[in-house]
UniProtKB/TrEMBL annotation, chain B:
Protein name: RNA polymerase sigma factor
Boundaries of every RNA polymerase sigma-70 region domain copy: 37-104, 144-191
GO BP term, example: DNA-templated transcription initiation
Organism: Marinobacter flavimaris
Keywords associated with the record: DNA-binding, Sigma factor, Transcription, Transcription regulation
Example of a GO MF term: sigma factor activity
Length: 212, 199
């Protein structure tokens, strides 16, 4: 179980570019706010560079460099050579500005959910947003398979501690918890369920990490 | 121009030759420096593409990476990342991007590759440089030479063949736990695990 920050093994899979898009999104959202983990990833990226340098080299075709030059020369001069650095985060692109006004589906008591798996076509995991109303409690539950969660808004607490915005949590079937939304905001999380699952009505509800 | 016939063994805190060249490309569109980078990194990137299943697109990937290097070089800041680290992340992103585009249409990709995988040093909020960043490649190169072969093999499969820890375990026919412990041991020695406070 990983709490608050991703573990080094996950960061390595991220740096190597081996994670699925939903998992990469969880890590990226955390990295955007955590300089400590960003610096760990910088080091891992350097490890990648050194690994690449130590592998065999394969001769490239003759004339390839000239092709590259003609490609860069053919770009229209008025087009900015530099790609504009996106100001809009991945999260905003996916979910818009206001998380609270999404078409939430109310479930048991204080819990609402929104399945956003369809925003990640071709990916195997289920991706779910959950909202626990401010001050609300989720029933005690355990987890099936492995579930990666990042807190997008507010905070929640369980027996193991308090999870604030941009904290990263990995829970497995060994973790039973009973989360409570703390603070005056609704707590919204994004979870990636690694095991491929069948989406049937009752089962979907059972997969909800707050109530399971 | 800097001599190119040996690997840049940078002294700590100073620019290595590749980083100097990349900076020349960024500042002055220096084509001689660009060519030198191509000669050095092109064959590495081609191997990288071939190792992870893009054999029939290997040269296309090299080309995409170099066009991208040219376009973005003005964003490159040697104080934030060594050239080889920066180029590795561009190669990684172009590989991911190529695979994504093969698998689906752009309409199916609301999030771009670079929204998910960032190039180091292009985050404008990042304070300028930390010394460990400049030292890290050299330190990693030195530490790697002391690692047991079995640890290097696992790391190489993760980085070069883009296999998950689970896939490496399946391929080497060893338990997943063994793969993970080899990676952890290696990362410990490489001091990548700085403070894993999450246990």
């Amino acid at each position: 179980m990983t709490r608050h920050h991703p573990d080094s093994l996950s960061l390595m899979e991220y740096s190597a570019g081996n994670l699925s898009e939903p998992h990469a999104l969880c890590i990226k959202l955390h990295l955007d706010k955590c300089s400590h983990c960003r610096s760990r990833v910088d080091t891992l990226d350097s490890l990648g560079a050194v690994m690449m340098e130590q592998q065999p080299k394969v001769t490239v075709s003759e004339g390839m460099f000239d092709n590259i030059l003609s490609k860069i020369d053919s770009e229209p001069a008025d087009e900015p050579a530099v790609p504009v650095i996106p100001r809009v985060s991945a999260l905003q692109k996916l979910l818009g500005e206001d998380l609270n006004s999404l078409p939430w589906k109310r479930q048991l008591g204080d819990v609402s959910v929104l399945d956003i798996t369809d925003r990640f076509p071709g990916q195997k995991e289920q991706v779910v947003l959950q909202k626990l109303a401010a001050g609300g409690k989720a029933p005690a539950h355990t987890h099936r398979g492995e579930e990666t969660t990042i807190v997008l808004q507010g905070a929640f607490a369980d027996q193991k501690g308090v999870f604030n915005q941009w904290d990263f949590v990995v829970l497995t079937d060994e973790d039973e918890h009973k989360p409570v939304a703390v603070g005056c905001e609704d707590c919204i999380t994004l979870s990636v369920l690694s095991a491929p699952v069948k989406l049937t009505g009752t089962f979907t509800r059972m997969l909800n990490p707050f109530i399971r | 121009m800097t001599t190119l016939d040996q690997k840049p063994a940078s002294s700590e805190g100073r620019k290595d030759p590749w980083s100097q060249m990349l900076q020349k490309v960024g500042k002055h569109q220096d084509r001689e420096a660009y060519h030198a980078l191509f000669e050095h990194f092109g064959p590495q990137i081609k191997y990288y593409a071939m190792a992870n299943g893009l054999a029939s697109h290997a040269e296309e990937l090299v080309q995409e990476v170099f066009v991208s290097i040219w376009r973005r070089s003005c964003l490159y800041d040697w104080r934030k990342a060594a050239a080889s680290t920066w180029i590795f992340t561009i190669a990684r992103n172009q590989r991911i991007d190529m695979l994504r585009k093969m698998q689906r249409t752009s309409a199916e990709m609301p999030v771009e590759t670079e929204d998910l995988w960032q190039i180091p040093g292009e985050n404008e909020n990042e304070p300028v440089t930390s010394l460990h960043r400049l030292m890290s490649e050299r330190r990693i190169r030195e530490s790697l030479s002391h690692l047991p072969e079995e640890q290097i093999t696992v790391i190489a499969k993760v980085y070069m063949e883009n296999k998950s820890h689970q896939m490496v375990a399946d391929e080497l026919d060893i338990p997943l736990g063994t793969v993970k412990s080899r990676v952890r041991l290696a990362l410990n020695k490489l001091k990548v695990i700085l403070q894993d406070q999450n246990v």
